[in-house]
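#structure-requests
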Amino acid sequence: MASMALKTTAFLLTLNLLFFSLVSSDTTPAPAAAPTCSADILKFGVCAGLLNNLGGVVVGSPPTLPCCNLFLNLVSLEAATCVCNAIKANVLGVNIDASFGLSMVFNNCGQKVPTGFEC
C-alpha cells in the first residue's frame, strides 16, 4: 500500500510541476501616464509677450516675471506640458512651432526643457 501511495504522490507532484511550468505570467507594465497640467493654461497667455518679441530678446536680460512666476509651483515636466498645451491651443496668440516656443519660454525663465520631452 505504501508503494502505491508513494507512486500516486510522485505522479501528482510531477503533474503539478508540468502544469506550473506551462503557465505563463505575461505581465506587461501599464503605460506611463501622460503628464498633465494642473494650472489653468489660460494664465500662460502672459507668456505671449515673450514669444512676440523674439527678435528683441537680449542675452542676460531679466526673465519676464509674470510668465516665469507660473513655473514656481510646477515640476518642470508639468510646466513643459502647460506651456506646450498653451502654445498648441493658441492661447498665446502666436503661431509658432510648439517645440521652439517651449524652448524659448523655458530658456528665458532660466529653465531647461525636461530631457526627452516632446511637445
